[in-house]
Every structure is written in C-alpha cells, then in structure tokens.
Amino acid sequence: MKPNVLLITLDQFRGDCLSSAGHKVVRTPHLDELARNGVRFANHYSQAAPCSPGRASLYTGLYQMNHRVCANGTPLDDRFDNVARMSLRAGYEPTIFGYTDQGIDPRTTTSPDDERLSSYQHVLPGFDRILNLSEPYPPWIENLKKHGYDMGDDFNGALSTEPDRHEDLSISNFLTDEFFAWLTKRDASIHAPWFTHLSYLRPHPPYAAAGKWSREYSPDEVEMPIAPSETRHPFHEAVMHSGHNAAPKTESELREMRAQYYGMIGEVDYQVGRICEKLRERDEWDNTLIVITADHGDQLGDHGLKDKLGFFESSYHIVGIVRDPKNPQAHGSVVNEFTENVDIMPTIAEAIDAPVSLQCDGMPLSEFLRGKTPERWRNGASYEFDWRHIYIDDNPSGAAKNWPHDGRLERQHLAVRRNRDCAYVQFGDGSWLAFDLASDPTWRTTIDDPAKVLPLAQEMLLWRSHHTERILTGMLLENGGVGRWPEGVAWRNQK
Fold first, then answer.
1. Rounded to whole angstroms, how far apart are CA atoms 293 and 197?
2. Spatial distance between the Cα atoms of 24 and 93, rounded to a whole number of angstroms
C-alpha cells in the first residue's frame, strides 16, 4: 500500500533556527523529535525568494532559471508538471490547507475579466484547496469574528495583533484544527492513502507571535544579528536603505523582532507536535511520509536587512526534515551534504512509486533516507534572486512594453553558487562578488584574487549548463523513438 504524504511548509523558517542544529536560544522540541524519528538535512536550501519563486521551485523541482517565476505575480507556465499533478497521476487526490502563491498562466484563461489575472495568490494546478488561507485569510478572519474579534478587512492588523489574543485563536492553530476536522470527516467513507500539503504562514512577518508565544523569549536573551560589512556592493547598499527591507536601526528593535520571530517558530513547532501526535492516535504514524521545509528564510537583521532577498544565505538556508517510516534504520541521522528544495518533488515521486519527471532539476533524497550516501551528488547549493518586477508597468515607453529594444528586465537578477569554502555571486549587470566562507562564515570577507575567483565562476557555469531544459533532449527519433521518452505520450504503451 502506498503511504500517506504530508508536505508541510513553514513560511520563512531559517535553517539555523532549530535547537537540534545548535541554536543557542530557540527551542524546537517537536521538530527535534521528528528529526530523531526521521532524517534532518543540515544544509538544505531554497532556490529563490520571495514566496512565489521559492514555492515554484519547491512544487516543480525546477531552478528559477527554468521555471521563470521571478516575482510574486509572475505567472507559472502551465506546461510544467508539479507535485500535485504528479500525485494525481499516482492515484492520490491531493489537498491543500493554506496557500501556494502561484499565479495563473494567462494562456489558460479565455476571459479578460478573470479575477485570477489580478492576483498571484491562487492554488497550484492539481490541488483541491480545502482551506483557503491566501490573503486576506477569509476563513480565519471569520473565525476571529465568531470569537468576538471583528477585524473587518484588516488582515494585516489581525496578524499584527496576534500577541493580544489567546494562542488557540492563531492562524497556525486554526489551520491545524481544520486539518484535523478534515481527517475525521474522511474516516467514514475513504480508506485510500491521502496526500496533503499544510502551508503555514508563520514564522512569516509581521513579527508578532500568538498569545503566550509572543512572551516565550525575552528580547534580552536573543543574540544580535550579523552586522553589515563596511564595504558593500551597490545592490546591498540600495536594499539596506529601502523602506521594506532595511532592518530596524536600534538594538531594542532588533532584539524585539528576533524574539517575536523565535516565538512564531515556537508555535509552529508546537503545531508539528500536535500533528505527529494525531497521526499516532490514528495509527497513521507508520504509514505517512512527512516532509518539512520552507519556501525561503529570513534575514532577521543580518547584514542590515530583514525579510527575504538578495544573495546572503540567511534568506535561503532553510529547515529540512523528512520522515520515511519505511526506513527506520536511518532515523536520527543528519545529512551534511547540500540538499535543495528542487529535491523534494523527486523524493516524493520515488516514495509513491511515481516516475520522476524529466523536467526536474533536483535529485531524490531516497538514498539518504535509507541511510546511504548517493554515489553522485552535488558539491554545493545554488539559488537566485530577481527584481525585474520593479520595471514592469504599462507605460508605452517602459521596459516591459519596449521589447526587444529595452533589455532592462533581463539585467535585474543575481545567481549564487555556494560550496563548502566559498560563495560566488553573479549579477545580471556583469558585476560579481566572491566570499571566503572557510575563514569567515558570516559572508563579510570577500575574495578579490582572479585566480581564486575563476574556478568559482566556472563552477556556476557548469551548474547552469548541467540544468538546461532536458524534456526532449534525451530522446532520438530513431527506430520509432529511443531514449528518454517525455511524459504524456498517450499511445506509447500501444507500441
């Protein structure tokens, strides 16, 4: 019998914020317990930021350079396979509680009045959305109203005031309760394995933890962030002084932001504990593949920045835990190889006996889950950031309209390749940075020697060349077709 699949995303969860990872302040007992009953991936990375680009990589197994979701609002090309469609073909009925932040491909709608052309906050094709917690979080806002908190349409206000209400009324607790209610309802008539994605908003900003969790950490006990270096790339300098991404200026504000972030982590850790206990109660613990990850991280004041953007790994190093009940021999192990969110779709595919889509840039984590080390594995992590959306508008003389004569959109991006000792950053305007991480893991010491930088640039070139589009490239039109056949050739089995 195929396993249940539970894919959990904890939005904006940094990879260092686990007590099992050695964090000196954060306490995550339930995630730590899950890691002891599964495999923790210590060097797990998102492939893009912000939410839509990062999730596109998670859901499709593609790097941003291939899926091309560049911003919150970029349409997701409908020709791509994704984790929900894959599970449908494997016989599941995939459900989603929360949100996926994926925009519609405009070629799939026939109406100029389609409201999906005005928002990216729509469900990934293939999922049946049981609970819609995209902005403005209508079911949760309605639940607050039932309990005497009428927030009107002020969903940001509802989130910002979570410290003022009991934690049982939080958006995270609400999602968990709705998932449990759904599990109970399906008991009577459905015995097939289920595939569910729980997409939690927290620890995403606003930095305001729910109820008791807002008081879990004193600002005095949290550590200060990494200070920005004295010499900075123009991109770093610009975003460090932007209103949205500039970190708070005072020590007290920085400490409060971090204390609230840790409190939000404490609450989602608690929700994970509730879920694991529920699975045990239902005798589904030993037949459920559990995947815990995030769409990206959070600067949290590091390098003078907050939220998620740019090239520093605070925005991309994320939580990664997988529990495969079929392989208890590997439980409790920690994988230090570089793993990525593009690996999640291939991993789930092998767990449910589905073919790994030829589009996938990632590789299955299956060998690690069996306690083995794959013969072939990557020696670094790669991620990208794109800010072309700043120049997209309907101005007739603007960059978006004046194609192909205006190439501004194609220059507003960066890519990072990070190995054990160094990191290389290539900007779309031709500039670059290289960091010596062996001597300084805080990303404040640069490498200027061309002889040392060249191998890093070549490594990035190889990464790009190894992950160009491959769906038809492994096939030859000889003898009726040989090699790797693409998915979707309906008559192939009739040959």
1. 11
2. 41
Q: Percentage of residues in the chain with pLDDT exceeding 90?
A: 90
Spell out the SS3 assignment of 454-477.
HHHHHHHHHHHHHCCCCCCCCEEC
- Report the SS3 class of residue 259: helix
The reported pTM is 0.96
Question: Residue 121: CA atoms inside 13 Å, Cβ hemisphere, count?
Answer: 10
Give the contacts of 4 (CB within 8 A, at least 6 positions apart).
Answer: 193, 194, 195, 196, 284, 287, 288, 289
The CA distances from residue 143 to 177, 184, 226, 243, in Å, are 12, 20, 39, 33
Contacts of 178 (CB under 8 A, 6+ apart): 97, 130, 131, 139
Secondary structure (3-state) at 192 = coil
CB atoms inside a 10 Å sphere around CB 476: 11
* C-alpha–C-alpha distance, residues 80 and 346, integer Å: 14
pLDDT per residue as tens digits for the range 360-382: 999 999 999 999 999 999 999 99
Q: Catalytic: 360?
A: no
Pair of tokens at residue 184 = 């109970």
Among 23-32, 237-246, 335-344, the range scoring the smallest mean pLDDT is 237-246
Question: What is the number of alpha carbons within 13 Å of residue 367 lying toward its C-beta?
Answer: 10
Return the structure tokens found at 125. Answer: 């094709």
Report, in angstroms and rounded to the nearest whole number, the Rg of the chain calculated over CA atoms: 22
> Cα dihedral angle (148, 154, 155, 160), rounded to 10 degrees?
-80
Structure tokens at 371: 């306690």
Q: Which domains does the chain have, with CATH numbers?
A: 4-376 (3.40.720.10)
Specify burial of residue 390 (Cβ count, 10 A radius: 0-12, 13-18, 19+).
Answer: exposed
Cα separation, 392 vs 245, in Å, equals 20
Tokens 């092998």 -> residue: 350
Residue type, 292: I
Residue with tokens 């494997």: 90
